[in-house]
Amino acid sequence: MHVSYVRETDGGPRCSVMFNAEPPGFEEGRRFVSDSEDSDGENAPIHNVTQSHQRKNRWHHVQDLDSFFTRVYQYHQQHGLTCMVLSSSFELFRFFFIVWFSTELRHCVDYSILFRDHDNEHVTLFDGLKNRTECHKSIREDATWVFFLLFAFFYGATQSIKLALRLFNFLDIKNFYQEALGISAEKLEHLSWLQIQEKLLDAQKLNQMCIHKEELTELDVHNRILRYKNYMIAMIDRHILPLQSRVPFLGEITFLTEGLRINLEWLLFGKHLNNPWAPFSSFQLKPQYKRRACRDERAQDLSKRILILGIINLLAMPVVFIFQFMWTFFNYLAVVKREPGFLGMRKWSLYSTFALRHYNELNHQFKERLSRAIKPSNRYMESFISYSLVEIAKLISFLCSAVLGVFIILGIVDDDFFRVEHALSIMTLLGIVLGITLSLIPDDFFVPLHFELLSLVRDHVHYISNDMIADPKSPATQKKFATLFQMKLAYIIEELISPIVTPLFLIFKLRHRAPEIVDFLRQNTVEVQGVGDICKFALMENKRSFIDSQELYGDHQSTGLSCPKTDMSLVNFSVRHPKWKPPKEGQELLEKINDKLARMTNVNDRSLFTRTDPLVASLSPLDSCLLAPPAPYLGTISENSTQSYTNKTQQTLAQSMAAYHDLGSTSHRMATSLPAENNAAFEDSQSSSVPPALTKSSA
């Protein structure tokens, strides 16, 4: 792989013209980025395939390979053209339904007729509807709602046009699957993405979709699909984006919502809607952002753009908030009524989808990895029990059960009881309170296993810091993990207040970080032949000849989560793509991990007899309640989590990550826990079926 790093020059042309200031010879070095010498720049179509009688077929020399590969991936993940059309159409229909239904409820219903005392008068729902004349008059008199409807109409029309263009683009992708890959719609469901990707790489050799490299690698495809996602992961990992804030009475919180994410991606990368002022143009960082001499000017310009975007968000706040509130109301109210404990359930936060994600990890791979950690994560958070709150919940649940039981019996004896004023309302309220309190009371046989559960979570999510593992019961660890695995109630509240907080975040926080953003883009952008400008961390180049245990197991300077993300990403990508050839430094790391795995396997073979003893096996609290089919036993609780994997790739990934952590932790534990003369004894302890950390914790 040929990689040329961006050169920083103090001289060169002036930086005042965004698109015209280019260093000498820049045009020649830029040609492969646009993948077309006759491209018309920003006016080029999103996806265009050049035609020529000299070329083999219409898939030769695709202009925008980023969009092309992304659509190939989405076509597979969304199960073909029919499902994609239905999903996009129904999403647009839901938007129009929310706008129409909200308007009807606000202006076209006479609530005085529905709620008044009718005695014996028979009233239907249609009696509460106003006639169309009164309804339209009420709408015209509400200036705020008229503005909301105009905004909704403009947005809906834009999305309808995008849906039509999306349909034509994916018709093209369907033809590509059938003609170039030889995959029909019937076969699509039976092939994995890795099989699709292998066929895609073979199609490159035949059709030369990218004319600047004869053969593409798996890493090239992933860098094309995840170009901007890798930048976002790196900026959050390096704390370039100031997502942490200190709030009175709440302490330090991390705020990242869907609305804020869309604003950031549009501002920096021009995603979702064309942005001619974004630092990136197509898949190239604009030359002004690559030159150190233009740093101050680019920072001032970016700060001004952020301010303008914040003001636009502030002006649109009433409209966006109305829609966000109505969408939340329609989406969650029935669910909460049916299942009161829904708000107390947990999900991975939007912040965790960047903090816990490897570089070059596709969406389905990331979701697959985190889905296996949901059960132990729930159990870990349930291990933090407030016993005083449990006693209060027991008392309230007893009182609610007693009153509700009497009401039910009275209703069974005589159903006229349910016609008593507020009887049904009281029973509904008691049922909701009872459901909430019962969810706070743990099972009588519940045993909190903080260390074991958090270790198990780390084997799935990979990014859990050493400080959290060392003190899994502390409130600080609980708060850090709750940032990643938040309650659904917290998620709903964050999304509701997002239209209000997002403009304030842009104006008062992000705007002042413009110089750091410009520096990050300049210092961490590399140019790769056949791919374009990408984040240098996405190359996964390991420059160290050994793993620094202090960096690995100390509090990560970037996120406070775990070990170097590039190393972990390298291990993850190598396991998932065995045919990929990593760089030399990365190969050395993988060889160390393979050696460690071989030693682990020998140790496990010698200690296997302890595993087959029924009495010894019964001592593991995680053996049956969390973990599914047995796999070759490894020597630590962390490695024991490989039993929860269902295929060889998942198991190998878990074992490799355990070996990687052990490579960094061995010297750290020797230096901090044992005298130098006891090194041999420490190595012998690695063969034990119980890890030293667990023994210390149990004691």
UniProtKB/TrEMBL annotation:
Pfam (any one):
ATG9
**Biased-composition ranges for Polar residues?**
684-699
Renumbered residue ranges of the record's region Disordered: 675-699
**Where is the protein found, in the record's own terms?**
Preautophagosomal structure membrane
Where are its TM segments located? 145-165, 306-330, 384-410, 422-441
Q: Does the keyword Transmembrane apply?
A: yes
Bilayer topology annotation: Multi-pass membrane protein
Keyword set, alphabetical order: Autophagy, Lipid transport, Membrane, Transmembrane, Transmembrane helix, Transport
Family listed? Belongs to the ATG9 family.
Function of the protein = Phospholipid scramblase involved in autophagy. Cycles between the preautophagosomal structure/phagophore assembly site (PAS) and the cytoplasmic vesicle pool and supplies membrane for the growing autophagosome. Lipid scramblase activity plays a key role in preautophagosomal structure/phagophore assembly by distributing the phospholipids that arrive through ATG2 from the cytoplasmic to the luminal leaflet of the bilayer, thereby driving autophagosomal membrane expansion.
**Protein's UniProt name:** Autophagy-related protein 9
